[in-house]
From TrEMBL:
GO terms for biological process: G protein-coupled glutamate receptor signaling pathway. This is WH1 domain-containing protein. The gene is HOMER1. The lineage of its organism: Eukaryota, Metazoa, Chordata, Craniata, Vertebrata. SMART domains: WH1. It comes from Denticeps clupeoides. Residues 118-175 are annotated as: Disordered.
Amino acid sequence: MTQGEQPIFSTRAHVFQIDPNTKKNWVPTSKHAVTVSYFYDSTRNVYRIISLDGSKAIINSTITPNMTFTKTSQKFGQWADSRANTVYGLGFSSENHLVKFAEKFAEFKEAARLAKEKSQEKMELTSTPSQESAMGDLQSPLTPESINGTDDERVTPDATQNSEPRAETNAVPFPHSSTITKHWEAELAALKGNNAKLTAALLESTANVKQWKQQLAAYQEEAERLHKRVTELECVSSQSAGIKTQKTELNQTIEELEATLRAKEEELERLKEEVENANQLQSQQESITQKLQETETKNQELETQLVELEQRMESSQVEQEAFRKSLRSLLELLDGKIFELTELRDSLAKLIEGS
């Protein structure tokens, strides 16, 4: 970019170029979406499309009136650049971006056409006076005033239009004037010599003009190459500020991520401690569960023993009841026997008393 060249519209897209071998397949020139910008050079009055991938210019296309931007799909468009001998393709993220880019292309194409017409009119206006002055400079040496040089040797303007016939007609009225005849012969020889010199000078000027044109074309190619190089360098320098800003933003993002990472690490340590505590609690719970199971087993054993004791108690109660019954019967029998013995004693006593 030159000092007079400024970006007037920018967008982002994936850049492609047509395969130079097949002329059918698209070859991507950028790995990701890059910035594609329209630039206007006020000094040269031209519009260009420029895109950089890092420090490499992947698009450097000057818009001309015969270019056409074609939308081949909802998000893809292309145009041919005869100067670069290639076809550029752009893939956009949305149809809106494609439509906006196409509108700007048509707008700047029309502006380039008007600028070209104005420049042609200016060239025609400036070239017409210069051509007239150049023709006058070439014709002026052929006039009698420039050839003769003195007032005594000058002839009338009529004589300059056709020197040889005039010399012959002047020789008729003065057949005996050899001096005038020699004078006109000398004039004619001088005119022929000057004409030959002018012809040689014209041929030399033509050759010089061709050489100058070739040198001018070489200078223009070199200037265009240097202009492209300057454009690339200026694009790189213009993007350096953006890169610095992106670097600052990335550093801030990295710091934020590091702070988040530290917080996550602290949280992870806390979670590890909680997991360890949970493992300990789980171990305690397992031991308590095992003890509870052992207690339940013992409880079941005790319950079994209790049932057995109850059964034994019931059986012992039955046995005690039977023993009590037998004891009662025994007591009753004993009472009867005692009563009988008492009666026997009484009867014995009476017998003794009676004897």
